[in-house]
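Sequence, please.
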C-alpha cells in the first residue's frame, strides 16, 4: 500500500510539473515607430539562463515553469523593461528607445565612462556608422566621421598606408601617426616588414567601435606616445542570451576612377608635328591607361558566432578578404581569426577576459611609379601586341610595360598574432585589481625580384632583394581601480604600472645575376652570380611607466579629471630617462542645474575645459649613444707599412658615425581645450563645439652641427625655443527626424578649422619635399619655414615664358637676378579646413546612406606634370597633356624648374561611399524557422570627386620623407584611386 501511495504522489507531481510548464509568447516593438525589434533578450526574472531572443519580426516564445511571473526585456539602445504575465497569453511589449547618447559608454584608456561624465575631447564611431564598401583597415572606417581627424591614404593601392592627422601636424621627426590601442593592448609603430598599412591585420568586420582621444586630457594617460592622439579600437564581444551566427559575403568591382587627359593617338600626331618634334608613329591607337589598368574583383567572406550565459560569454569569427587592385600584380589577401572570451567566477568577483587575433597577410605590389609613368607617357601610336605577343619595338626603345609586369614582383607574407589575457578581482565593493598580459608577434618575409629579360633593344639583369623581419612586442600592466560614492560625491581612482618591451630584428640580402632557366630567383638563391649587399639589424626598446587618474563628480553636475603619467624610455639617455605628463579637465553638466532641469527644449548642455601634456618618443633607437664604423679612406687611416702606396692596402680605422647625447630630452605637446556638448528637441538635434590650442616644443631633430669641425656630420638634439603651433575650432551637428513614421531620415556633419604654424625656427628652411629625377633631384619643393605652416611650398614664382622660349620667374627681391633668394612661400600642403557630412534615409525595410568628405585651402605640387608633361618630352614622341603646348613660343629645351607652374589647388569634395540596403524577412522566402534576418545591399565607393586638380586624385600623400621628416602634398606618380561597386549579402541565424 505504501508503494502505491508513493507512486500516486510521484505521478501527481509529474502531472503538476507538466501542467505548470506553459508557453508565453508575443511580439516586441519599438515604442515610437511601433516596428518589430529583432535580437531582444527575453528571460524570466531570476532565471537568466533560460533567455531567448526575438526573431527578425520581433516574435518570441519562452517556456515558464510557473503560471505567473515577470519577463525581462533588454536590448542595446532601448530601456530595459519588466512585464508581468499570467497563463499562456500573447504579449505585445513596447520598448522605449534610449534616445540620448549620455548613457553611451566611451573608452577613455584603462577604463570607460558614460558619455555624460566625460570631460575630455573624445570622438566615437560605432560599427553601424562605419564607412561601407571594400575596406582594408580601421582608418578607412572612420574617414570623415570625427571632427578634427583627417584620414588620408597614401595612394589608391589596396591597404595603402595612411596619414591619420589628429588636430594638425604637431611633430617633424615622428610624423603624424597616432598611438593605436586594440582591446587594451598598446601597439608599437615600429616596422613589421609589411610595406602597406600595419593596421591591415585587423579584420574591419571584427571591430565594434573606435574611440579617438583628441585632447591632452583624454590622451595623457598614455603619456610619451600620445602627442599625435590615440585611436582606441574595441573588437566585438559576446553577450548573454541565445547564440547568434552571422554570415556576410561581399563582391566588389573596382576600376580607374579618373583618367588624366593625355593626348589621344590622333591628337598626339598633330601635337608632335606642331612643336617640330620627331614623330615616331607606330600606326596604332592605344589608350595606355586602359591597357595598364584592370577591373579588380574583391571578395570578402566573414562568419561570426557569439553568445553566452550570465557567467561566460564568447565571440568568435573567421574571415577571408581578397582585394584586387586596378594594376596587375596588386593584391591584398587576408585570412583572419578572432576569439574573445569572458568568464566570471567567485560570485562575479573574479573575471578573466581573453582576446586573440591571428592573421595571415599576402601582399603583392606592382612597381607603381613606373606603371603610372608608362600609362601617361608612352607613345599612343604604338601597338600593345604584335602577332598576339607583347610588342617589343616601342618608341624610344621603351620596354613594353606588359613585359615589365611579368618580370617584376614584390611579394610579402606576414603572419601576426595579437593576444592578451586580463584577469581581474574585486577585493571589496568597488576596489578591483587587474593584470593585463599581452603579446604582439609578427613575422614577415618580403621578396622583391626581377626576372632576366633580353630583347633586341633591352637587357634586364635578374635581381632579388630578400628581407626577413621579426617584431615581438610584450606588454605587462597592473592597475588598481576604486569606485566609491559618498552621498553626492562620486569617485573613481586609478593607479597603474606598465612595462613594454619591443624587439625588432631584420635581415636583408640583395642578389643579382640569376640564370634564365624558368625558375624564380627567390627559389634559387644559390644560383646568383653575386651577393651585392647583406645586412642585419636588431633593436630592443623598453618603456617603464607609472600612471594615475582621479575622476570626481558632484551630484552629476560638476566633474573633475586629473591624470599623471611618468614614462621611462630606453631610447633616452640616463640624464633624461623619465618624462612626466600631467593633465586636468573640468566639466559642468549645466542641464542638471535647477534653472534648466525642467527644460523641454534643452536636453543636454555640458561645458568642458582641459589642459594637459603628452610626449613624443618616436625617435630611432640608440641615438643617445656613440656609434662607430670602420673606414680606410681619406684621413680615416694611415699606413702601418711604409711601403704601402695604395689605400686598398691601408688598415681600417674606427670613425664616429654618431656622437653621444645623453642630454636628449622628450618632445612635449601642451594642449588646451574648451568644448560644449548639447542636444535639443528630445535629443533630435545634438552637437559639439571645441576650441583647441596645441603647442609642441623641445622639437627633436637630427641636424648638422654648427661647428663644421666635428667627428660626425650630424647629431640628434632638441631645438631650443622652436615651437609647432596648432589651434582651431571643431563643430559637429546631427539631426534625426521623427522615427514613428514609415519614412525617416537623419543628417549631420562636421567641420574643422586648423591653423598650423612653426615659430622660432633657427633654420631658413628644413626641406620636407624634394624633386626626384628629371635633372631636379634634391631641389626643394616644400618644407618647414619660420612663421609658416609645415609643408609650405617654397619655390620660384612662375610668370610665363619669355621671348627666348625659357621660363620666366618673378624677381621678388628686386636685385635684377633670379636666384634661390627669390623663392616665395606659395601656400601649404595642409588644408585650412576639412569637412564631412552624411545623409541617412529609411523607408520601411529599405535604407540608404551617403557619406561625403572634403578639404579646402591646400595646394598640391604636380610632380608628374613637372617631370613628364613638358614640350621636350612631346618633341621626342613621349605623350603629354596640353600643358606641353600651353605656350606656343616655349622652347623644347626649356627646363622643368621647380616653380609655381606646377602648383595646383588641392581642394575637393568627394562622395566617399553610398549604400542602399534592404532587410528581407526570412518568412517571405520560407526560411523563417532557420534565419533571423537577410540583408541585401549595394555600395558605391569614390563615386565622384569635385576638384580643380588635374592629376588622378587630389587626396594624395605618397608617404615619402626627406631627412626622415615627412613629406606632404606632392604627387610622385601616385597609384591612382579606384571607383568600386560592392554587392553584399548578410544572413543572421
Amino acid at each position: 500500500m505504501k508503494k502505491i501511495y508513493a507512486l500516486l504522489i510521484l505521478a501527481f507531481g509529474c502531472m503538476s510539473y507538466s501542467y505548470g510548464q506553459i508557453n508565453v509568447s508575443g511580439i516586441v516593438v519599438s515604442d515610437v515607430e511601433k516596428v518589430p525589434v529583432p535580437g531582444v533578450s527575453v528571460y524570466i526574472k531570476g532565471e537568466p539562463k533560460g533567455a531567448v531572443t526575438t526573431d527578425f519580426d520581433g516574435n518570441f516564445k519562452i517556456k515558464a515553469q510557473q503560471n505567473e511571473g515577470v519577463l525581462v526585456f533588454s536590448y542595446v539602445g532601448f530601456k530595459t523593461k519588466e512585464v508581468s504575465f499570467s497563463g499562456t497569453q500573447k504579449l505585445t511589449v513596447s520598448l522605449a528607445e534610449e534616445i540620448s547618447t549620455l548613457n553611451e559608454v566611451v573608452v577613455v584608456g584603462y577604463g570607460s565612462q558614460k558619455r555624460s561624465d566625460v570631460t575630455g575631447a573624445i570622438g566615437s564611431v560605432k560599427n553601424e556608422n562605419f564607412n561601407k564598401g571594400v575596406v582594408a583597415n580601421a582608418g578607412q572606417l572612420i574617414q570623415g566621421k570625427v571632427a578634427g581627424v583627417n584620414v588620408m591614404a597614401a595612394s589608391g593601392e589596396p591597404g595603402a598606408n595612411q596619414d591619420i592627422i589628429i588636430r594638425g601636424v604637431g611633430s617633424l621627426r615622428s610624423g603624424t601617426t597616432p598611438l593605436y590601442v586594440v582591446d587594451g593592448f598598446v601597439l608599437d609603430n615600429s616596422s613589421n616588414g609589411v610595406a602597406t598599412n600595419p593596421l591591415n591585420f585587423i579584420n574591419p568586420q571584427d571591430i565594434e567601435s573606435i574611440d579617438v582621444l583628441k585632447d591632452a586630457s583624454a590622451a595623457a594617460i598614455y603619456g610619451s606616445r600620445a602627442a599625435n592622439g590615440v585611436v582606441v579600437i574595441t573588437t566585438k564581444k559576446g553577450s548573454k542570451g541565445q547564440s547568434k551566427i552571422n554570415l556576410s559575403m561581399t563582391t566588389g568591382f573596382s576600376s580607374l576612377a579618373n583618367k588624366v587627359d593625355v593626348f589621344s593617338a590622333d591628337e598626339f600626331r598633330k601635337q608632335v608635328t606642331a612643336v617640330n618634334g620627331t614623330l615616331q608613329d607606330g600606326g596604332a591607337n592605344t589608350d595606355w591607361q586602359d591597357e595598364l589598368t584592370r577591373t579588380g574583383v574583391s571578395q570578402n567572406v566573414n562568419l561570426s558566432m557569439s553568445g553566452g550565459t550570465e557567467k561566460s560569454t564568447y565571440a568568435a569569427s573567421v574571415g577571408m578578404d581578397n582585394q584586387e587592385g586596378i594594376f596587375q600584380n596588386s593584391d591584398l589577401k587576408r585570412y583572419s581569426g578572432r576569439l574573445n572570451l569572458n568568464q566570471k567566477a567567485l560570485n562575479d568577483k573574479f573575471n578573466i577576459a581573453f582576446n586573440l587575433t591571428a592573421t595571415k597577410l599576402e601582399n603583392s605590389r606592382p612597381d607603381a611609379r613606373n606603371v603610372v609613368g608608362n600609362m601617361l607617357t608612352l607613345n599612343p601610336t604604338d601597338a600593345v601586341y604584335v602577332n598576339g605577343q607583347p610588342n617589343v619595338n616601342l618608341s624610344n626603345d621603351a620596354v613594353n610595360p606588359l613585359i615589365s609586369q611579368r618580370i617584376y614582383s614584390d611579394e610579402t607574407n606576414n603572419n601576426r598574432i595579437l593576444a592578451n589575457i586580463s584577469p581581474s578581482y574585486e577585493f571589496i565593493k568597488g576596489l578591483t585589481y587587474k593584470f593585463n598580459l599581452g603579446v604582439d608577434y609578427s613575422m614577415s618575409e618580403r621578396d622583391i625580384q626581377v626576372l632576366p629579360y633580353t630583347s633586341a633593344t633591352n637587357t634586364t639583369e635578374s635581381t632579388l632583394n630578400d628581407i626577413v623581419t621579426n617584431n615581438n612586442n610584450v606588454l605587462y600592466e597592473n592597475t588598481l581601480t576604486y569606485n566609491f560614492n559618498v552621498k553626492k560625491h562620486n569617485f573613481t581612482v586609478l593607479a597603474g604600472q606598465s612595462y613594454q618591451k619591443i624587439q625588432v630584428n631584420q635581415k636583408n640580402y640583395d642578389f643579382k645575376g640569376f640564370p634564365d632557366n624558368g625558375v624564380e630567383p627567390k627559389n634559387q638563391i644559390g644560383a646568383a652570380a653575386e651577393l651585392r649587399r647583406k645586412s642585419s639589424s636588431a633593436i630592443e626598446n623598453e618603456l617603464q611607466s607609472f600612471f594615475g587618474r582621479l575622476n570626481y563628480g558632484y551630484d552629476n553636475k560638476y566633474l573633475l579629471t586629473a591624470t599623471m603619467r611618468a614614462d621611462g624610455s630606453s631610447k633616452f639617455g640616463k640624464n633624461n630617462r623619465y618624462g612626466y605628463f600631467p593633465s586636468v579637465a573640468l566639466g559642468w553638466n549645466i542641464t542638471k542645474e535647477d534653472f534648466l532641469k525642467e527644460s523641454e527644449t534643452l536636453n543636454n548642455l555640458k561645458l568642458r575645459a582641459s589642459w594637459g601634456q603628452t610626449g613624443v618618443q618616436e625617435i630611432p633607437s640608440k641615438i643617445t649613444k656613440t656609434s662607430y664604423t670602420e673606414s680606410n679612406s681619406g684621413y680615416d687611416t694611415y699606413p702601418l707599412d711604409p711601403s704601402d702606396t695604395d689605400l686598398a692596402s691601408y688598415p681600417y680605422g674606427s670613425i664616429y658615425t654618431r656622437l653621444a647625447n645623453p642630454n636628449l630630452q622628450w618632445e612635449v605637446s601642451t594642449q588646451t581645450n574648451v568644448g560644449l556638448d548639447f542636444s535639443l528637441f528630445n535629443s533630435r538635434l545634438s552637437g559639439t563645439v571645441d576650441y583647441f590650442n596645441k603647442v609642441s616644443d623641445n622639437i627633436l631633430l637630427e641636424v648638422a652641427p654648427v661647428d663644421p669641425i666635428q667627428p660626425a656630420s650630424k647629431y640628434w638634439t632638441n631645438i631650443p625655443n622652436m615651437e609647432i603651433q596648432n589651434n582651431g575650432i571643431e563643430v559637429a551637428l546631427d539631426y534625426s527626424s521623427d522615427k514613428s513614421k514609415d519614412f525617416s531620415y537623419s543628417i549631420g556633419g562636421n567641420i574643422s578649422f586648423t591653423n598650423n604654424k612653426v615659430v622660432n625656427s633657427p633654420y631658413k628652411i628644413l626641406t620636407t619635399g624634394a624633386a626626384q629625377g628629371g635633372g631636379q633631384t634634391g631641389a626643394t619643393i616644400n618644407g618647414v619655414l619660420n612663421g609658416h605652416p609645415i609643408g609650405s611650398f617654397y619655390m620660384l614664382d612662375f610668370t610665363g615664358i619669355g621671348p627666348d622660349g625659357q621660363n620666366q620667374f618673378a624677381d621678388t627681391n628686386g636685385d635684377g637676378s633670379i636666384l634661390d633668394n627669390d623663392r616665395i612661400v606659395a601656400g601649404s600642403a595642409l588644408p585650412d579646413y576639412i569637412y564631412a557630412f552624411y545623409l541617412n534615409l529609411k523607408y520601411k525595410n529599405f535604407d540608404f546612406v551617403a557619406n561625403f568628405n572634403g578639404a579646402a585651402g591646400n595646394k598640391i605640387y604636380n610632380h608628374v606634370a613637372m617631370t613628364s608633361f613638358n614640350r621636350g618630352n612631346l618633341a621626342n614622341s613621349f605623350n603629354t597633356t596640353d600643358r606641353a603646348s600651353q605656350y606656343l613660343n616655349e622652347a623644347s629645351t626649356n627646363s622643368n624648374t621647380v616653380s609655381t607652374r606646377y602648383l595646383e589647388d588641392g581642394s575637393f569634395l568627394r562622395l566617399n561611399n553610398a549604400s542602399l540596403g534592404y532587410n528581407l524577412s526570412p518568412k517571405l522566402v520560407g526560411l523563417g524557422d532557420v534565419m533571423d534576418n537577410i540583408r541585401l545591399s549595394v555600395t558605391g565607393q569614390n563615386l565622384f570627386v569635385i576638384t580643380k586638380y588635374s592629376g588622378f586624385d587630389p587626396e594624395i600623400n605618397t608617404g615619402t620623407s626627406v631627412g626622415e621628416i615627412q613629406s606632404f602634398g606632392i604627387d610622385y606618380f601616385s597609384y591612382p584611386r579606384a571607383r568600386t561597386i560592392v554587392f553584399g549579402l548578410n544572413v543572421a541565424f
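The chain is about 5% helix and 50% strand.
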